[in-house]
Amino acid sequence: MTTNIPTVDPATSGGVELRKEPSYLRVSSGLWSWLGTLDHKRIGLMYLVGVTAAFLVGGALAFLVRLHLWTPDGALFEPATYNQVFTLHGVFMVFIFIIPAIPASLGNFVLPLMLGAPDVALPRLNLASFYLWCTGTILAIYSIINGAVDTGWTFYTPYSLETGTAVVSMGLGVFVLGFSSIFTGLNFIVTIHKMRARGQTWFKMPLFCWAIYATSVLQVLATPVLGVTVLLLAFEHIYNIGIFDPQYGGDPVLFQHFFWFYSHPAVYIMILPGMGVISEVISVHSRKPLFGYKLIAFSSISIAVISFLVWGHHMFTSGQSEFVMVAFSFLTMFVAIPTAIKVFSWVATIWGGSVALSAPMLYAIAFLIIFTIGGLTGVFLGTLSVDIHLHDTYFVVAHFHAVMMGSTALAFFAGVHHWWPKMFGVMYNETLAKISAVLILVGFNVTFLPQFEMGSLGMPRRYATYVEEFQIYHQISTVGAAILGIGFALMVGYMLASLAGGRRAKANEWGGVTLDWHTPTPPNLYNFDEEPVMTGDLYDYTSGIPDYGKDAPMDKDELAERQAAEGWNA
Amino acid sequence: MSGHAKVVTPTPDGGFATHEVAHHFKTAEQEYQSGKLAFWLFLATEVMLFGGLFAAYIIYHDVYPETFVAGGSTLNWKLGALNTVFLLTSSWTMAMGVRASQLSQKKALVGYLVVTWLFAAGFMVVKYFEYSGKLSEGVGPGYWFNPVPGSHYAEVLEGLPFPNLFFALYFTMTGIHGIHVLVGMILIGWLIVRAQKGHFHSGFYLPVDLIGLYWHVVDVIWIFLFPLLYLVP
Predict the structure, then answer these.
(1) Which residues of B touch A187 (CB under 8 A)?
(2) C-alpha–C-alpha distance, residues B50 and B128, integer Å
């Protein structure tokens, strides 16, 4: 796996310091060096490509949904086809994109760097997780070809038992994707416990690590319940086990309990890593230690704990006892406390900081705006009486998208923009990146603010047709979706262009101080030149910014190229 | 940052065994602890998975108590008890095997593993007779629940609501547990082969340790299944 590097004597290379080892991108080449790699960075990049592709497919499906809703009778599809399109949008976005998005791509790449480790604790399991993700995705695509699924991403019984669509193969896909997610989470817990650098105590871990830790605990403890739920759903199809089917003595509402016992913690599997990214981005680009470090760390853990106790708030209209409903509503309100602690701490970090309005920071600010909308509308929905009115309307759709698309996806983009120079050693066009951030912020709100409004007026979710008075809201929303689409297309464009011919990134593009910025850019195969030892404070911007390896050239050929380009002599 | 630590251990026969620590670990201790923690987390996922099935069982036991009591009374508790003895004993032999590997006692390790494997096989044989006895009288899960009229099952379950549900849960829970026993037999078989080649010694016994833990969890799940299904009546 290693290539011999010609040694270059600094004395004859114009005094330029050279890398000690090749970067992980250059250390080996060929298809198999990627497909069979155990390097957490390459696995992270493969995940990044995969989840981005899933996002684009899910996004295209969403745009078809929006186009269909341009007219009250539905502009594009038969109602049955419409049901399939929005279901596939949900399945792709939830199970294939957003759950693995941040942990498996950015987390995989950055977490070991932040811990000063050469790799994750279980590299083989890491690769296995990626291939399980591929297998689950293939099963999902197979289900589309084999009749699609029209139940919504929640697969509620009894309809999911009656529909003739490919629920079993899609369920199997979700089961496999669940194991992929469990493997990632399990791996990260072990990595955080056992692989931290010398001197890095729990409270000297960057907050991204705390967020990933809380996420991983949820992945390990909640996902098996989803596994057994879809397994039982499959048994229901295969041999009528009966526990979700009243015809055989079962109860369809039990499916909802099982499903949400996983899927409520799952929404925190989706959002917690995003919160971790935002903590890092805001600190670096405000050049300030995070305000309330310990509170943010503990709030991640407490969100994880509380998330196991609130699943019933998805079922206020499903027929639970009043006592249970009050208890779930009360516990739901508790989530607002740690969440608000985070938002206030981020704002307090920006306050008085030396704020750079760089592209990652713009994405982070857009996150703050939309997440606040999404979080507060969650409080409306957690309130019993209000939820009875808003249940299954576009208000819920808009709330969910504000915290998932407008928050997690934006945090994902913020993170990708933030660590892109570290990943590839090149920079994208920042002007275009800023334009794209603004387009996405505007596009998001044009899309979803009308949905809050029409939801509160009574427009139900998942309907293929609607009454005419909602047309103006739907049309504004569709225009917003188009703006969002332009923003994403622009982003994909300038990101790919940067790989082809972006300027060389600085060794430490943003002046970060956590251990991930103590590696050469891009990092070595085993990340660090020397085993890092952590001394001093975690977010200390006052005692010098690391620029390890500077922008040192790799070998003689590259050195010659740069000499020619920059006009200096050895 | 890519040194491969090595552990060299003297063996009872006067030679040395070496184990190379994986590239990303600093010490053998770190490697051992990481593997152990990872495996405990995996076992937690097993507990959560079976937890869902137990929850379903408890809920329907509460909804149809007479059916579940009658259904449980048709199971042969003597065969269940025999299987419990098999699994408990095999847990003990497995634990002894782990100890043998820690002491680099190759022959004892292979012996204990073989005995454990045989108990597991015995468990599956008893399960086979239980299953085939039921299926031959038309008692299977879901679609295959059509008790032969006049059979013991048909008499006991006469007039009770949804006896199919009890047997669907019985077959699903013991079936998934049985698959775990089969997987355990494959894993223990693999350990026997490696132990025979002398791969395990006081410097490296992690696989024996981990599969031992797995085997204990399979045992513990049975310890819950046995009274819930066979003894509750």
Answers:
(1) 38
(2) 22
Summarize the confidence of residues A426-447 as an average pLDDT: 96
Cβ of B38 and A527 within 8 Å?
no
Place of tokens 């250059």: A26
Residue B172: partners with Cβ closer than 8 Å, 6 or more residues away: A232, A235, A241, B53, B141
Query: Minimal Cα distance from B49: which residue of A?
Result: A224
Q: For residues A533 and A513, what is the distance between their CA atoms, to the nearest angstrom?
A: 13
B65 touches chain A (CB under 8 A): no
Q: Do B42 and A186 touch (CB under 8 A)?
A: yes
CA nearest to A243 within chain B: B165
Which among A221, A248, A529 is the nearest to B162, CB-wise?
A248
Q: Nearest CA of chain A to the CA of B62: how many Å?
A: 12
Q: Reduce the DSSP state of residue B9 to 3 states and report it.
A: strand
Residues on chain B touching A117 (C-beta within 8 angstroms): 24
**β B6-10/B16-20 pair status:** antiparallel
Residue-wise DSSP of A396-424: HHHHHHHHIIIIIIHHHHHHHHHHHHHHH
Please name the member of A190, A239, A250 whose beta carbon is closest to the beta carbon of B37. A190
Q: Given B1, B38, B50, which is nearest A186 (Cβ)?
A: B38
Angle, alpha carbons A479-A483-A484 (nearest 5°): 115
The answer on pLDDT for B1 being more than 50 is no
Of B52, B142, B168, nearest to A258 by CB-CB distance is B52
Confidence of residue A569 (pLDDT cuts 50, 70, 90): low
Across-strand partners of B9?
Answer: B17
B35-79 pLDDT, tens digit per residue, is: 999 999 999 999 999 999 999 999 999 999 999 999 999 999 999
CATH class of the B38-231 domain in this structure: mainly alpha
B165 touches chain A (CB under 8 A): yes
CA-based nearest residue to B191, from B83, B88, B100, B84? B100
In angstroms, the CA A529 to CA A518 distance is: 9
ipTM summary value: 0.91
Is the preceding omega at residue B12 within 30 degrees of 0, hence cis? no
DSSP at A152: T
Compute the 3-state secondary structure of chain A and give helix, strand, coil in percent, each to the nearest 5.
Answer: 70, 0, 30
Please identify among residues 178-217 of chain B the ones whose CB lies closer than 8 Å to any CB of chain A: none
| Residue in B183, B192, B168 with CA at minimum distance from that of residue A244 | B168
Q: What structural domains and CATH numbers belong to chain A?
A: 42-566 (1.20.210.10)
| Nearest-angstrom CA–CA distance, B94 and B101 | 11
Between CA A133 and CA A49 the distance in angstroms is: 12
* Residues in a beta bridge with B204: B201
Q: What is the pLDDT of residues A196-231, one digit of tens each?
A: 999 999 999 999 999 999 999 999 999 999 999 999
Q: Say if A237 is an interface residue toward chain B (CB within 8 Å).
A: no
Chain B residues whose beta carbon lies within 8 Å of the beta carbon of residue A239: 141-144, 168
**Quick one: DSSP state of residue A26?**
T
